[in-house]
Amino acid sequence: MQIAVLTFDGFNELDSFVAAAILNRMKARGWAAHITSPHEQVTSMNGVTVHRQKPLEFAAEADAVLIGSGIRTREIAEDAGLLAQITLDPARQIIGAQCSGTLLLARLGLIGDLPACTDLTTKPWVIEAGVNVVDAPFIVNGNVATAGGCLASQYLATWLIARGASMREAEEAMHYVAPVGEKADYVARAVSLVSKAMAGEFAVVA
Known about the structure:
Elements: E1 2-6, H1 13-23, E2 32-37, E3 41-43, E4 49-51, E5 54-55, E6 64-67, H2 73-77, H3 80-83, E7 94-98, H4 101-107, E8 115-116, H5 123-128, E9 132-133, E10 138-141, E11 144-147, H6 153-164, H7 167-177, H8 183-198
Parallel strand pairs: 1-2, 1-6, 2-5, 6-7, 7-11, 8-9
Antiparallel strand pairs: 3-4, 10-11
């Protein structure tokens, strides 16, 4: 399983790095999550600069694609030239987006009026794009999932491992990264939420 973690200038470190770290727990199975960017270097919203591992074109050949958020996502969503470089196929690929990454999925025509999650800041922009935004942490629609909130990256990672391997392996990956003394609670929460989402259920925040 080769995974493209789309990461643009102004990216949120929690979105790209947390998901990539959890997914790379699957290296023994031949999995690899790659920081994928249109530029050789990409700088986060807090000034952390990293070298990309794959160019943006890699997203078209990857088995799975995750789109994180950032402070420049709205600008990127209006860049037709850049969006044209992103070729995704939900019939073949497993695709996830987090927070403002959901806006990019909407601009790419991969959500339509299906229910989706995003963060509270991006919510009005995603609604403006025609998406039915719900106040939930994680939703699955076939091969496409969306998550809302920085720490919801753990749900995207759990879902992707469950889809590409097994829920048991997803549990093991989450168990490794969860806080000591709270591992059972973290794993149970992630597995419960992701399992319900995969069954077409989601919990709306009151």
